[in-house]
Design a protein that fits this description.
about 170 residues, alpha+beta, 4-stranded antiparallel β-sheet, 7 strands, about 35% helix, about 20% strand, globular
Length: about 170
């Protein structure tokens, strides 16, 4: 979260800790524990392949997971932001509220971690620096072809995205 060295260190520590586990909720909790020696914070989304196909997903913050079967794109996650909280209660949110997160790796608990699953054979894990400038339609267009994380990030940059753009495509 943010453009500081502390944020970058926290993100790397969280990702390294989460990558070691095969349960997505445990992965988010391991990421949280890894941040205890860091001053920064991060958001996270984790996808773990299930035996027999599909993925289990867990997240904290506003990083997203999208499932694709090659034609349809489904957003699996719900942003942990003030804007999403307000929308869920029928209140119109100001655009700036999209960037105010209500959960992070550092704050994650078993109760606050989001969970989803899909039978789709492909998931894209993306930061707001990708889904913000591309929107759902842009991500769907890329995912309907030969999707790669590099294509998603380059498209976000081409769309004049100004936030950190991170993506991972798993199939």
């Amino acid at each position: 979260m943010g453009d500081t060295a502390a944020a970058a260190d926290a993100a790397w520590a969280a990702a390294r800790a989460a990558a070691l586990l095969v349960d997505p909720v445990a992965a988010v909790l391991a990421a949280r524990d890894a941040l205890q020696v860091h001053s920064g914070d991060a958001v996270i989304v984790v996808a773990v392949a299930r035996p027999g196909g599909g993925f289990d997903v867990a997240w904290a913050g506003d990083a997203r997971a999208y499932a694709s079967d090659g034609s349809d794109l489904v957003q699996l996650t719900t942003d942990h932001t003030v804007a999403e909280y307000l929308r869920s209660r029928g209140i119109v949110a100001q655009p700036r509220m999209e960037h105010v997160v209500t959960n992070t790796v550092r704050l994650a608990t078993v109760e606050t971690i989001g969970r989803a699953s899909t039978r789709a054979g492909c998931v894209a894990l993306v930061s707001d620096g990708v889904y913000g400038p591309l929107g759902r339609d842009g991500i769907e267009a890329i995912m309907s072809g030969h999707a790669t994380a590099q294509r998603l990030v380059r498209a976000a940059m081409y769309a004049h995205g100004t936030d950190n753009a991170t993506a991972l495509v798993v199939s």
